[in-house]
């Protein structure tokens, strides 16, 4: 089974008691449950260790965190060289967005990202449709 995290398992950023109980019930029943999120690897790691999941797929599918008896291992969609090259390109794109689109900021969870970038548009800052379109055009 696959599930989303934000506003599916969580409410206001915390897992709800009923969602955690459901995950435990599914685990006890022997079902494989994996959560999928656009959030970064760094944000996902504590949940991958503490929730009864077999894995969390983070960063929009770029990284899978597998919980193997309380230890995490990572599986990436791209090899190390391609990840490094793409990450450098993404950092340049993010810098351009921040410089060229007034009012933009990186998502606060960006420090834990390994394979992508995120521009906050509605969590801690609110961008207009025009600002969002401009940020997308810059990227």
Give the helix/strand layout.
Layout: E1 2-4, E2 10-11, E3 14-15, H1 17-28, E4 34-36, H2 41-50, E5 55-58, E6 63-68, E7 71-76, H3 80-100, H4 129-138
Parallel strand pairs: 1-4, 4-5
Antiparallel strand pairs: 2-3, 5-6, 6-7
What would your notes on this structure say?
The chain has 139 residues and is α/β, with parallel strands linked by helices. The protein has helices at 17-28, 41-50, 80-100, 129-138, and strands at 2-4, 10-11, 14-15, 34-36, 55-58, 63-68, 71-76. The longest helix is centred in the middle third of the chain and has 21 residues, at 80-100. It is globular and about 50 Å long. The mean pLDDT is 94.
Keywords for this structure?
4 helices; two-stranded antiparallel sheet; 139 residues; alpha/beta
Q: How is the largest sheet built, in terms of strand order? A: 1-4-5-6-7
Radius of gyration: 17 Å
Which parts are unreliable, with pLDDT below 50 for 5 consecutive residues or more? none
| Total DSSP E strands | 7
Termini gap: 34 Å
Q: Write the H/E string, N to C.
A: EEEHEHEEEHH
Strand content: 15-25%
Helices, by number, come to: 4
Main sheet: strands, sense, barrel: 5 strands, mixed
Residues in helix, %: 25-40%
Mean pLDDT: 94
Shape: globular
Structural class: alpha/beta
